[in-house]
Amino acid sequence: MVQLTGVGELVASPGTVSFGAVSIGQGASNIVSLQNAGTAPIDITQLSLTGQPFTLVAPSNLPITLAAGATYHLNLQFNPTAPGAATGQLTIASNSSSTGTAVISLGGTGTAAPAIVVGVTPANVSTTAETTQQFAASVTGTSNTAVAWTVSGDGCSGTACGTISSSGLYAAPATVPSPANVTIIATSESEPTESASADVTIVPPAGNTYYLATAEDGGNDSNNGVSPSAPWLSPNHSVNCGDVILAAPSTAYSASNFATGAWGTVTCPAGNSVAWLRCATFDTCRISSSSLAGMWVDQSYWGVQGWEVTTTASDTQGTCFLAEPAYVTPVQIHHVIFANDIANGCGYTGFQTGNIGSAGVDYIAIVGSIAYNAAQGNLTCNNGIDIYQPIQSDALPGTHIYLAGNFAFGNFDPNPCGGIIPGDGEGITLDTWDGSAGGPSSPYAGQGVVDNNILVANGGRGLLAGDNGTGTPPFAQIYLRHNTMWGNNRDLSQAGGSSSSWCGEVDLLTSLNTEAFFNIAVTDASDGCGTKNIYAFYMIGASTGDSVYQNWGYAPSGTNDAIFDSPGFTFDPTNTFGTNPHFVNPIAPEAPSCGNYSSAPACMATVIANFTPTNAAASGYGYQIPRSAQTFDPLFPQWLCNVNLPAGLVTMGCKAEP
User: Fold this and answer.
1) 195: buried, middle or exposed (CB in 10 Å: 19+, 13-18, 0-12)?
2) β pairing state of 552-554 and 520-522
3) Is the N-terminal amide bond of 63 cis, ω within 30° of 0?
4) Contact yes or no for 518/548 (Cβ under 8 A)
5) What are the strands of the beta sheet with 169-171, ordered from one edge?
6) Which of 23, 227, 426, 432 is the most buried (most CB within 10 A)?
7) For residue 576, which of 616, 610, 604, 540 has the smallest C-alpha distance?
């Protein structure tokens, strides 16, 4: 306290003013009191302030006259513009007879302004067309928490993306855009450079639900199918994309009710979804057949989910899950999905597509499924999963054929098969996409992706892409990514012939326009396919248009890679060849027994764990656990964003490009 004595006595308090820590861009204030403690009036004649961050809210006119006993308040403000300590002083001049001047010390510290951070919840959500979703925004680092909301999308503009209110209520459009995702953005009004976003996937309105059961459980195609008490016997009914036929659990389903000619017409105006034939509980709907294919889908826009099939016939009728045009009056089919299914012992092939003359299959997805012991028949040599001679239904860009999240193991040809020594038994094969076996008028030129599969302990190659280079271009663009191969080529009967001569965990056999990356391939023996060397990666007839890069290959015998008859082709130096990834427990899986599990990946949890690398450098190669959140993936088929796939089979790549 500073006192001036005299007839008029000025008392200014406090003597020191500390504003403490104040964020840059913010302000703090304090009051200084001027009191006349004397018996006569005094005049305040001048107020002087030093120190740049300090300001004084002063009266417009001086002098200020203070009567005896009166008090006057001054408002001091501190507005720092830079970090660090600041000092100043307020000098008060008066006509006090004791001393005419009082000095008050000023101090404060400028601190860095807190970062303005915007958040949006929920950050990732699916919503149905013509419904609403409430979003909330949080803003920290400023007292102004207001935001401006906007919505946008790659496949829409304006109200076609939906609308969002000032309170964050999003209204989805009536029509699902393509791609079916939009971005909600909240932008800080106090700092427009700061924002946060949320990803929204728009799904079609839920379709109708119908019911299906065996004849013994009341299934009859004369029923209306709209209740469990009046179920259909087969899917041979006209339905719409988005509809679901819910099958009651039974181990006695008859293949004749799912054969060619037993599938109804699906109406799908948007052309980017399916009607589902779904088992009510995973792996409780089973077909065992000795003379027919378990399921022969011969119509477009169908998906099959949650079924298990076993067959023993040696011809095409021995396929467990088949997508192929009807044998009589064949027409092109497209948009067919096998998801979360099990081919558990098959006479021909586990999952297969085929052509009848110039009619074939396009837009086929096999995801999150199991193919085990699926090449038992001796009429021909077969495989676990076989996409044979596809035929394009349109020339649109993007992925048409998608094999992802599958498990193929224990697939061996009998000896002989097709009258010759075995030559197949692959886990997955992309088979004669150039149409050179006859039927298609031109090579298939759509895009195919084989992604995130585990292919182990098969008689033939783990993954074979063969015959995509004969005829007149263009040829298909093929991507092989994040697949795990181990211990294949186990069939010692494969002692000669053509395909059996190429013993690689991964084989590219005259497969042009093929890229392989982030795969991991490991041999478990020095030779196989009879008595020939086994390689992790084997290229036959490759060209400069093929790219094999950023893969991991290891053969304990040192036969990590081989190139044959491939002028100009070389393995990219980014491949890691010759280093052991050290899988946790690489052993051949036993036959699948999935009745107590919720999905095929859950049933295969031990297999997934066994083939996880312990070498940290290899952790990003091969099979990866599917993510629950949407990602941006230009190789993901966008038509699958509309079909409501079961969660956990694959990582949904439906997020807009960042």
Assistant:
1) middle
2) parallel
3) yes
4) no
5) 132-134, 169-171, 163-164
6) 426
7) 616
The DSSP secondary structure of 229-269, one letter per residue, reads TS-BSSS-S-EETT-EEEEPPEEEE-GGGGSTT----EE-T
At which residue do the structure tokens 């728009």 appear? 202
Name which of 556, 561, 557 is nearest 577 in CA terms.
561
Q: Over 90: is that where the pLDDT of 551 sits?
A: yes
Give the pLDDT confidence of 434-477 residue by residue, as tens digits. 999 999 999 999 999 999 999 999 999 999 999 999 999 999 99
- Token pair belonging to 89: 């002083």
Instruction: List the domain boundaries for the chain.
Output: 2-111, 117-203, 279-559+587-608
Query: Which H or E run contains 216?
Result: none
Using an 8 Å Cβ cutoff, are 261 and 297 in contact? no
Does 142 have pLDDT greater than 90?
A: no
Cite the beta strand spans of 432-551 per DSSP E. 447-451, 454-456, 463-468, 477-481, 484-486, 504-511, 514-517, 520-522, 527-528, 532-533, 535-540, 547-549
One-letter amino acid for residue 232 of the chain: W
- Neighbouring C-beta atoms of residue 449, cutoff 10 Å: 23
Pairing label, strands 117-121, 399-404: unpaired
User: pLDDT tens digits for 191-214?
Assistant: 899 999 999 988 877 789 999 999
Residue 17: both structure tokens together: 């003013």
Strands (E), 14-162: 16-23, 28-36, 42-50, 54-57, 64-66, 71-78, 84-94, 101-111, 117-121, 124-128, 132-134, 136-140, 147-152
**Domain 117-203 homologous superfamily, CATH:** Immunoglobulins (2.60.40.10)
Which has the closest alpha carbon to 242: 646, 654, 638, 643?
A: 643
What is the value of pTM for the model shown? 0.75
Strand 250-253 to strand 285-289: parallel, antiparallel, or no bridges (unpaired)? parallel
Domain at 2-111, CATH homologous superfamily: Immunoglobulins (2.60.40.10)
DSSP letter string, 264-296:
--EE-TTSS--EEEEESSTT-EEEEESSS-SEE
**Calpha distance 413→493 (Å, rounded):** 9
Residue 495's alpha-carbon distances to 314, 343, 456, 530, 605, in angstroms, are 23, 28, 20, 4, 35
